[in-house]
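Contributing new records

If you add data, match the layout below exactly. Sequence lines come first and carry their own label; structure lines follow with theirs. Keep one chain per record. Anything else will be rejected by the validation script.
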Amino acid sequence: MTLLPPLTTRKATGWRSDAMLFVIALSAATASVFPCAVTRVHDGDGPLWCSNGIKVRIAGVQAPDFESAEPCHRRDASRTNYTCDDAAADRSRRIVERLVLHQTMNCQPVGTSYKRVVARCTLMDGRSLSCAVITAGAAVRWDRYWRRYRMGDCR
């Protein structure tokens, strides 16, 4: 069974991202924990860029999005609970940067979203990253996904 088309038929710029998605999907399927040394933070729920090339979406939370974000341009009823506000998104990003930037955490993949790994991550002090961003005010619990990813209780 072929999982990806031969490299000769792939765009020169696209095969690496397809290969990375395959590795991510395989990791998610096997639920293996991976280290993430955070080099960049987009906003309060991700992506967080890891030094190994993986982009992480923090599981179970929803943070304000920048107005240019793709979900902010959708006009369907499912997007009514999104906050699209550049100032709020920037504030949220700065809070998450203080928690994780230049730190290493351990992440367990639970899914994928917009070419990112959705993961339950644990900070080096043992706290859940999802709980930490909620406590710090960077994001809110997104109940639908909190239950889906079996996030448990914040201590």
